[in-house]
Amino acid sequence: MKALPLAVAVVAAVPHALAQSVTIERAAGATASRGPVLLSTPVIQERLRFVGADTAAGDNFGFDVWISGDLIAVGAPFADIVTPDVGAAYVFDAVTGLELAKLQAPISSSFFRDGLGSTVVLHGRALYAGAPRHDFLMEPLSGRIYGFEAVSGLALPSIDPVATGNGGTIAHALGETMDVDGGLLVAGSRGDSALQLGGGSAHLFDANTGAFRRKLFPSDPGFADNFGFAVAISGSVVIVGCPFDDDNGTDSGSAYLFDASTGLQLRKLVPVDTGANDLFGARVEIDAGVALVGAPFIDSVGGMADSGAVYVYDVASGARVARWTSPDPGVNHQFGDGLAITQDYLLIGEPLGRNSAGIQSGVIHVYDRSTLALCGRLEASDGADGDGLGESLHTEGSRVVAGARGSDVLGNVSGSAYLFTLP
């Protein structure tokens, strides 16, 4: 079984010749390959860079990120507070870049290696931070989701695994993945063993109160499938990744669509061209009828190991409309290990991809949402090998915030985050 890694204003328009390989799906299942095609794509660098005032080596600041209005949230799940790797979440002013708050669990409820900040989401002025390695009621790795007032740090009600009515919660890892839209928060619980050992589940909560709404299971749960490894929600539709599903071989992966209002499964997504260890469903994203599913460990380009691929789906029909591979592929580049959608663009993170200088700092590829054409890329101006830019992504309007948890700006793997503006 292959494991995923735990997880000054500068704008440049630099031509960058890339060989793009895109497969566009046609009617009746026919496909036509469009590539390689040489494209000249602009490179956009960051407007702001963020680091915590007390970020230190090993913190993995930038592990997850979120932008909402005038606030940016950044998770640092390996920050040492009282004990190692308890974790923290930082809040910044999205306009000035100033740090506004550092949020952490109360000492009375913090445990060794809780990992608070593994995921962060903002809902209004509330910030939810996942602590998937928290031992709730002494059940190891059951997980917990902490709530805070984003700027004051005032504690809001937490979301505990017992609230879902699961019974035992050992190794559920609640809060390892989260998303919020409208009044609903969806959280993955990939270790849930209610139907199968390690089969997984996902949970819907009221984003305003934290109250439990319903639990989602796949129609065909399997041993160690890790359903809930990735989650996303848009309106009334939830997408859940299940990367260790074995439909096309061991750990080939799948993804599921659900009706958020009823909890009913709408369809299962399994491409015909995945195989063992591809981990299709390790990343998912959805917005207004478009769904993205990442398979970052597929050997997609000339047999390059773990070069990665992304699949684009029409939510209403379940039809696959495109399959993308990296325009600049490489071994272990993991194209598709970060996903985001805006009104005009589809963004694909390649955390070990090469920037314009040939440095494996990570890049974010930008595609036109209407034409599916590659139209640009986002890079950090100070990118260095192993930064991992693009593994975590979130957008609002034309703004994109991206984490680079492997950045060494304040020590080895201290981490950083960047704010970009799309045209």
Automatic annotation (TrEMBL):
Keywords: Signal. The keyword Cytoplasm does not apply. Residues 1-19 form the signal peptide. Pfam families: FG-GAP_2. PANTHER family: GAMMA TUBULIN COMPLEX COMPONENT C-TERMINAL DOMAIN-CONTAINING PROTEIN, UNNAMED PRODUCT. This is FG-GAP repeat protein.
